[in-house]
Write a structure and sequence with these properties.
It is a single chain. With 51 residues, the chain is mainly α. 82% of the residues lie in helices and 0% in strands. It contains 2 helices and no strands. The mean pLDDT is 92.
Amino acid sequence: MLKMLQEASSQAGKIFDNKHAFEMLDSMLETAYYEESYKAILIWAEEMGII
């Protein structure tokens, strides 16, 4: 995704901050991953009668 952003920005003549983009993407992907993990563990805990 980062490479695509770099290329698209270059083609559009836009300024691209590689470090900032990496940090933002990393944060968003981490949030999405853990959000799904938390949903999955809640379903599992309900099925096991833990909660």
